[in-house]
């Protein structure tokens, strides 16, 4: 094995906090938030709020 190590003056990305971004900026960049699963028959028939709990 090698004893070489990588050193950088830049901190790791997971240490740096993310810049604040409000909801309207996120919406402009990424679009509407959509569910990961397809809505069922009754959810499509009566609207998305029907199946939510």
Keyphrases for this structure?
mainly alpha; 2 helices; 53 residues
Structure report:
By secondary structure, the protein is an all-alpha fold. Helices cover 26% and strands 0% of the residues. The chain is built from two helices and no strands.
Give me the count of strands: 0
Q: What sequence of helices (H) and strands (E) makes up the elements?
A: HH
Low-confidence stretches: none
Helix-and-strand structural type: mainly alpha
Describe the secondary structure blueprint for this structure:
Layout: H1 23-30, H2 41-46
Short characterization:
The protein is mostly helical. It has helices at 23-30, 41-46. The longest helix has 8 residues, at 23-30.
